[in-house]
UniProtKB/TrEMBL annotation:
Known function: Catalyzes the first step in the biosynthesis of NAD from nicotinic acid, the ATP-dependent synthesis of beta-nicotinate D-ribonucleotide from nicotinate and 5-phospho-D-ribose 1-phosphate.
Catalyses which reaction(s): 5-phospho-alpha-D-ribose 1-diphosphate + nicotinate + ATP + H2O = nicotinate beta-D-ribonucleotide + ADP + phosphate + diphosphate
Protein family (similarity comment): Belongs to the NAPRTase family.
EC number(s) on file: 6.3.4.21
Signal sequence range: none
GO molecular function terms listed in the Swiss-Prot or TrEMBL record: glycosyltransferase activity; nicotinate phosphoribosyltransferase activity
Domain Nicotinate phosphoribosyltransferase C-terminal residues, every copy: 373-479
Keyword Phosphoprotein applies: yes
CDD domains: NAPRTase_A (cd01570)
Pathway: Cofactor biosynthesis; NAD(+) biosynthesis; nicotinate D-ribonucleotide from nicotinate: step 1/1
PANTHER family: NICOTINATE PHOSPHORIBOSYLTRANSFERASE (PTHR11098)
Protein name as catalogued: Nicotinate phosphoribosyltransferase
Superkingdom to which the source organism belongs: Bacteria
Amino acid sequence: MKITKDLYQGSLALLTDFYQVTMAYAYWKSGKAEEEAVFNLFFRKHPFQGGFTLAAGLEYVIDYCKNFKFGVHDITYLKEMKDKEGANMFDPAFLKYLSEMKFSCDIDAVEEGTVVFPNAPMIRVKGPLIQCQLLETPLLNIFNFQTLIATKAARINLAAQGEPVLEFGLRRAQGIDGALAASRASYIGGCTSTSNVMAGKLFGIPVSGTHAHSWIMSFETELEAFEAYAEAFPDNCIFLVDTYDTINGIKNAIKVGNILRSRGKEMVGIRIDSGDLAYFSNVARQMLDESGFPEAKIVASNDLDEHIITSLKGQEASINVWGVGTKLVTAFDQPALGAVYKLAAIRIENGTYAPKIKVSQQSLKINVPGYHNVKRYYSKGKAVADMIYLEDQEIDPKGIVIIDPIDSTRRKRIMPLFYQEEILLKPIFRNGKLMYKSPALEEIRKRAFEQLETLDKTHKRLINPHLYPVGLEENLHHLRTDLVLKAQKFDQKDEK
């Protein structure tokens, strides 16, 4: 499925920040447009104060890059732009260059559903400087949001401890685009279904839902409403019981459940959307069991998130299914991931890559320079550490040291000979040609589950998780340190 083509019917090249276009023009004017550059997309902190992040959005990136072009209407819009003096902002020759430009970058990326960690690239883009620059904003837009939501969904599903989590967020999502992307990312993160029918159509996600309070209110009595719904959907009856009085609502659901049973059908369950969910779910469980409905499910909704679900679990609430909406699809407690896209290297005349460093007074904001990749080490199926390393660096199988990019006192010695390893950045595009076959969404979802299983449970704690080791290979650490000192014009000889 071509996502952008299906949703937008055309080019998305102008879905970018204006300064990307002005930089592109300046690169072209200065003769640097075709210089080969390497950019990395990464994030600096886990969202939600967590211990892991779940990558999502690659299929959108692939679709965007496959369709990347400046169409006639894009060029017309840029042609009409004026500077402060009223003159054309862009040279016609530049606009002709854009109209003829074909996507020709190499892209390597972590697969969707992969557990990822701060400072390690999720996407590496290599190609003409102008193209790499123009890709910055759309790639960040896609990965920032979908990775954030997939991570939130994974946390909620961990809190639910294997019980189904239904994504109910369409009406509260950040617009049509946000709703669709959130439904897809939530499914990757472990949700079993969505209320979003269009997401079901586009992505093949199972859809679910029953009725709202308005259905009950449109009838003279709650009992009539339940009976009418059972007549319409005898095989899919989950009755919303809290419109007027939750206890009476449960009683009415049981009455209609008995009617269904007399017709050879079974009530699926009830839903509680307000009040004390722990108390009412336990009362409902007792009433349903005593009335001969021990298999009836109890669905809870009402602004749930991983923390409320954990609390309800601790209170031994009798809830089987969790409907989560607003706080999932809006990433309510952290509205942005904060991933960034930084220049890491420029290819020079001898064919090698000159590393580039961005220096800051905050060590967190100093990027990792050079043309590098990420390797994950496993022991007995469990992830033990990630190493960021230069592509041309030989790795001693007998022993290496990785050094935390933020705190150089945090170090870990690894003997690769005794571990299984996986290179995380996979080839996606080569010279603009797609090399990667996107797996089905079900496979991506399965990968997310398997990836989370490779993490020790201490890394998956919702509060104060244990820090997973991610470090620079020692030679890369020294290169980075030297470049920082050089950029700061710090000469150790002068400090005697």
